[in-house]
Amino acid sequence: MNISKSTSRTSQPVVLTSLMIGLLAISFSAIFIEWSTAPAAVIGMYRLWMSVLLLSPFALKRWREFGRLSLRDIGLVCLSGVFLGLHFLFWIQSLKMTSVASSMIIIALEPIFVLIGSVILFGSRVSKSGIISMLFAILGCAVVASADLGKGGGHLYGDFLSLVGTLAVSIYMLAGQKVRASVSSTTYNVLVFLVAGLVLFLFNVMTKTSLVSYSGHNWLMFTLLAVVSTVLGHGLFNWLLDTVSATTISMTILGEPVGAIVLAYFLLGQPVLLLQGVGSVMCLIGVFWFLRTNSSRQSDDEENPAGQETDSAYRGDGPERFDAGHA
After folding, report:
1. Count of structural domains within the chain
2. 157, 43 contact by CB (below 8 A)
3. Domain for residue 315, yes or no?
4. Is residue 6 included in any domain, yes or no?
5. In a domain? residue 309
6. Which residue intervals make up region (Disordered) (predicted)?
7. pLDDT tens digits, residue range 265-317?
8. In whole angstroms, how far apart are CA 96 and each of 35, 38, 147, 159, 251?
9. Prediction pTM value
10. Whole-angstrom Cα distance, residue 180 to residue 166?
């Protein structure tokens, strides 16, 4: 795979190192969550709001972008924020109930769900290869879930929550794609993170969950999620989009479940069952196949302008595709 759009050979080691650092940073997201004893909504709320504090200085440099937002854009930002908040609520809770392997593999289906939504909402077309790869990936997730059958209803419910969280983050991507074409990813993230954090704040208030009575260890995990997984991890990917292709970033992010599973094995002592391993490989092959198929169609569309609109419905028009959605 050609990793570079415009980098020289001398800069390729820097690019590769940055890709690996970014991958490691987002892979640690599930580990930090497992290491925290705080409720899911509290973890998500502080991760989002701390990220806002870190990103705000960069967003304020683009303050004119805020004025370009129409009422429709603001409505879409709010809708995106609601579903991002729900995503964190369901996905983080899934990690509390099932294994990292099961939760992370299921959420790897996000790009497939986004394309399905694009087909329904925007009339995007899917090739036969795309359909086969999607079905193969979904079958792989079913195999992963089957490994949890003997672990009790709690693990299966955790798998279900991960699936719901994946659907929520897919809606978040679809709802905000028009706004992401108008403003930078930093500005968009700050606005959406604010709304998503507010959703989780209201959930905590309604459920009478404590907002501040947590140990220093938990506050450290909140901070690491914001600094390492969100700002450093996805920040590196956004920065690299100036020099490497979006497909390369997609393929790198595809390694997140693998990285999280390996880290969970060594740091959390979570073994990978045979069915989980088989299903994980099937799912990742299916998603990889899907992304490669979509990338090929993208190249065809660049030669055929009539296909550009269809492809952009999935891709979100560039860097904003990698705006710290779930990890």
Report:
1. 1
2. no
3. yes
4. no
5. yes
6. 297-327
7. 999 999 888 888 998 999 999 888 887 776 655 555 544 443 333 333 333 33
8. 10, 10, 17, 11, 27
9. 0.85
10. 20
